[in-house]
Structures are given as C-alpha cells and as structure tokens.
C-alpha cells in the first residue's frame, strides 16, 4: 500500500481542521522556516530526515510516532483518523463547536460472568475433620507404645517400632476479630442491619466461618457471626473486607441505640462509638498504633500459625477488652466464644455514603456550569434523566428490573426509594459485590471463570448505578456531572442537545 507523502498528509490535516475545527486550527503554531531548520541541523550536528524537514516546514506541532515505522506513516494515519472518525492512540477525534476533541472509545461487554451467581452453585466447605486425640497404632489393641524390654527372653522375636514425631507447632495467637456491640438488639437484628444474605444464615463456629469465607463459595463477601452478652448483642467479622468502622455501618447499627466497636487492622487498634445513628467525632475514637516487627509474611493465617507481626496491637486489643468491661460492663473473650456455634451469615456490604461537593465547571471539555446557569431547573432535570436512561441502556444497567422500575418512576416524576434495604439499593450493593469479587479474583493466582472483560462490564454497571443514586440523592448539577462523566456513546453531546431541545 502506498503511503502518502508528508506534505500530502499535512494538507489533508490542515483542510480538515480548517473546515471542522477552526478554533483548534487557529491555535497551531506557524511552520518553521528553511533557515530555522538548517540552523537547528548545524547546532545539533545532524542532518534531519527529509520527512521530518517537510513536516517542520508545514507545521511546527509534531506528533509522537513511536508506534509507527516513520513520520510519513503517523501523519497518514492521523489524517485518516480525522477524515473517517477512526481511533488514533485509543481515542476518536470529534469536531465540537469548532474545536478538535478526543474521546476515548469504550465498549461495555454484554452478559458478564457473575462471581456471585457462580458461588451459588458451589457447596459451602465442610468443617475440619476432628484431630485424633491420641496416637493410633493399628497392630496394638491398646494403642500405646510398648515399654522398652528389660531383657530378651530366649526364643522371643525382636520387634522394631517406629514412632512418628514432628517439630513442635507454635501456639496460635489469641483470636482478635473486629467486634461490634449494640445495646438492646438481638443477634438476628444485628445480622439484618449488617446486610445478612438470608440463604447463608446458619450456626457456625469461628473455624467453620473462616473456612467458609476463604472458599469460592463466599465470593469474597464478608462473613459475620452474632451472639449476645449481658444486655448487648455483638457481631464479629470472620473474613472479608473490614466493615465495622465504616461510618455508614456505624449509623445503621446505632439507629435507636448505642454501639461500641473494637477493630484491629494491622498496626491499628481502635475503639469507636456511635449513638442513635451518629458516629462519634474522630477525636473521640481511641486509637493505638504499633510498629511492625519482623519480616514474616502477613495475613489472617499468620496469627493461626503463631506469627505476630504487631505485638503492640495484640496487647492494645487485650487492653481495650478490659476497657469494655470497666466502662460498659461488656465481658467478652474471643477465644472462649470462638468454638461456640453462633448464628452467622455472609453479608452484602452497605453502600458508601455519597460525598457532598461542588460540581465541576467542565466535564469532558463540556461547559456544565454554563448549561446549569442558562437552563431552567425543570428542563435540566428532564434532560439529565434522559441522559441517565441512555447511560443505563449502554451499560446494560437497565437489564435489572429494579433499575427499570426506578427509571420509569423518574420519567413520570414519581419518588424512588433507595434506602439500604430497598430493592434498588440491594441491587446496587450486589453490583458493588460483583465488582469486588471479580477484581479480587483477577488479582489473585486463580481467576476462576472471570475475565478482564467481565470486570469492565461490572465496573461500568456499578458506575452507572452510582450515577443513578447521585441523581436520586444529590443536587442536580452534581448528578449531571456524574451522569455525563460516565456516558459511553461518542455522540453524547448531540444526544444531550436533543434531550434539552425535546423538553
């Protein structure tokens, strides 16, 4: 295939910019002079390639062409991209209001593999087999090692016994899980508020819970056990991402009551409080930070093997248990309750709080502030709702019935419930769990049935769900930014103009 000369490609680029993006064309620097090029060659002590000279004489703004065999190739591909709206370095050129803009070309795969659905087809792992209480010797009815003979009788047979021994195993460190206490609640209510998945509720001791949460059956969701002590219900998290120190969790747990939470995350141990849905100020949280000791590998399993990476934190946790008893009358020993079967369940984590903030003035080089200023609120809301519906369709968020119903109610101006336990919020929480499980599986050694395309799809749906929640909960300009920032279509500006014109 014949590659056009540099001068021909630059002429095509210049013509396209002049016609479609005159504002961008006006920002280009003038071409270099022949004398300037020759002076540069003398200064550097090199002779420029003829194609580079031709490019410099046409326009001084150079493109990086490391991915092409020559400048002639890159300019030809650049001209093709402008004239035919083809991707160039992963972005597609657009002419918008006389400017050349570049939009990332994205696709959202359909029907991604669901780690959560895959997990429902798996069986929860059984408990550990019981350890033998004493050595077993198959040829000895009393299962004991015979005492050494004092003498060998005549005619007797010598027998040699082998006794298997091993290195002494270190004692496991004390159990120190994150634990939350709520005054006056029942264990069942604690689990419900934390988002327990009904199909997974059953009694488990700590070891059963840990085996379950470390298996593919859990799909990287947290598992919580709940019990009661005195007038308090308590819950311990036995695996998965930490939950109890999150402000949204503290608010839900403490609604109508008071809550005390003891957490240990690596070097930090904290005692946090909340009352009637209000977490305590940050300065009232009691914290102890401990330096790491040794170069051992970390992880929950390390403590079970007797490896203590933060001995100071181990001591601080024990000290806070004493504080619970002294100040609240809570007597709790994780080692004692660990072997007890308590009601437990996987939980679907609560949604993060939406952050109140000022909207950006520009979104993807679009004047959002100007749009908000010149558009009546009702018309703007209708147009953003239409953009939200387009976003749900292109990310396939609208394949979920809870979302379809919500979009229909929005279109008719009806209120939409989106509290943590409402069906729409539960769907959003499920999407967050899908993203977390897929990303964690891909980052681990065994990705199982999922791929990077699945992650792309779940992230797109999760982001679209965030935009939907922003539309329901945040000021309209902030919601508009969230929706427009996530649009996938390259032509979202034209669609927005149509939505504004049709209201």
Keywords:
two-stranded antiparallel ribbon, alpha+beta, about 500 residues, single chain
Question: What is the strand and helix layout of this fold?
Answer:
Layout: H1 6-20, H2 22-25, H3 34-44, H4 50-58, H5 71-84, E1 91-96, E2 99-104, H6 115-120, E3 178-183, H7 187-194, E4 202-204, H8 206-213, E5 223-229, E6 232-239, H9 247-253, E7 258-265, E8 268-275, E9 278-279, E10 286-289, H10 300-304, H11 311-328, H12 334-337, E11 342-346, E12 362-363, E13 366-367, H13 368-374, H14 377-394, H15 401-411, H16 423-443, H17 452-473, H18 476-486, H19 492-501
Antiparallel strand pairs: 1-2, 3-6, 3-7, 4-11, 5-6, 5-11, 7-8, 8-9, 8-10, 12-13
Helix pairs in contact: 1-5, 14-15, 14-17, 14-18, 14-19, 16-17, 17-18
Radius of gyration: 33 Å
- Arithmetic mean pLDDT: 84
- How many helices does DSSP assign? 19
Tell me the count of domains.
3
**General form:** elongated
Structural class: alpha+beta
How is the biggest beta sheet arranged? 9 strands, antiparallel
